[in-house]
Amino acid sequence: MGTEPVIKEDTNIYSILRDDIVKLRLKPGMFFNIKDICRLYDVGRSPGREALLQLEQEDLITVLPHRGSIVSKLDLDRIDNERFVHRSIEENVLRDFIGMFSPSVILRMENCILEQKEQYRAKDIRRFFDADEEFHALFFSEIFRDYCLSVIERECSNYKRIRLLALMADENFMKNSIEEHESMIRAVSTRNLDKLMFWSSLHTDRYKAQERWLLKRFPDLFTQSDKESEGMRKSPADLTSDFLLSIRSRGL
């Protein structure tokens, strides 16, 4: 969001604003109001309010009555629950996948890894993350579990945010992700469920192990107390800057 987006009338403002929050273009904890949303995204107050209501229901924003809203900070308890949901669904999908997949899916997985390697070299964290998501989505689509994937998409947005933050904070996460995906492909090629589950679990556990480190490094992005929003002030420039790129450019 280095420049103001051009929004078409038929664009779903909810989807765009949600993507800006999940992809960390908007900083966790930043303050804004409905006027900011209407101005920046060029939408009316009614669709703007509807979008904010949906985002509040997903715990991606917190509405402050008569004051405005804040992008919800990262809550480790919430993230732990979302990770549990994500892991529980994916593990069951992997069990079905290993006995049902078509060999052609392996080529698509390898293409995802090639894309990850390209984006790793380009240092494009978001496109790397998208390729990571596409890799895992193949397990679901191959056995027609698209609804299960949609549940993860809907319910695990905060888990996505901390994964993206981890990728930004330490590029070793990107290298490890590529290596783990390659190991998962080898397990798929031999239809070895135990190894597939092992590498999938390691992939998930690596993020959990770094959460406290991320909390220590970026304390202002995490929920600290029930009264954390008190005294917050609006920063007019926040909505037009890309948070993820800004902290990366400062080498934080």
Automatic annotation (TrEMBL):
The keyword Transcription applies. Keywords: DNA-binding, Transcription, Transcription regulation. It comes from the Bacteria. The keyword Ribonucleoprotein does not apply. Residues 7-74 form the HTH gntR-type domain. Gene3D superfamilies: GntR ligand-binding domain-like, Winged helix-like DNA-binding domain superfamily/Winged helix DNA-binding domain. InterPro entries: GntR_C (IPR011711), TF_FadR/GntR_C (IPR008920), Tscrpt_reg_HTH_GntR (IPR000524), WH-like_DNA-bd_sf (IPR036388), WH_DNA-bd_sf (IPR036390). GO terms for molecular function: DNA binding; DNA-binding transcription factor activity. This is HTH gntR-type domain-containing protein. It comes from [Clostridium] citroniae WAL-19142. The lineage of its organism: Bacteria, Bacillati, Bacillota, Clostridia, Lachnospirales.
